[in-house]
Specification:
The protein is mainly alpha-helical. The protein contains six helices and two strands; from the N terminus they run αααββααα. Helix 4 crosses helix 5.
Length: 164
Amino acid sequence: MDAHQAPDHPERPERRGAAATGVRAAAGDRLVEPACEVATDDQITAVHGDDYLAMLVDADDRGGVWLDPDTYLVAGSLRAARLAAGATLQAACAVSAGEAEVAFAVVRPPGHHASRARGRGFCLLNNVAIAVAGLRASGAARVAIVDWDVHHGDGTQAIFGADP
């Protein structure tokens, strides 16, 4: 996840490192850090669609682009985003299956500003939306999303706003 980095950009690996340090300190010896699995194309396109994923793959192959003034994609960004989405899905599934009482996915790049067909606000893939889609595919009828970021999760709202 740390390969996603542009010079002088506020969204950088140190942010995840600081959060992980806090989680480790709070959890102590109860912490389990499983190996992250990357989100598959099918898991991603269940939320974002084929065209958006194809655009990300093309941009990654070209070495990078800026999706908007805040959101970059450089070599390694797509893999980092796949790992972030996969880890978020893993954490949600572990709790849903009763394998974990709680889970906290310390991932980057973030995801709550990414809508179905557009990355923005530092976000490439909507990690939470991919996790919710995975939970629903596994039979979950209802999933609560709690986003406590100081910024509105407009991408998540756009994806689920009409969903009861």
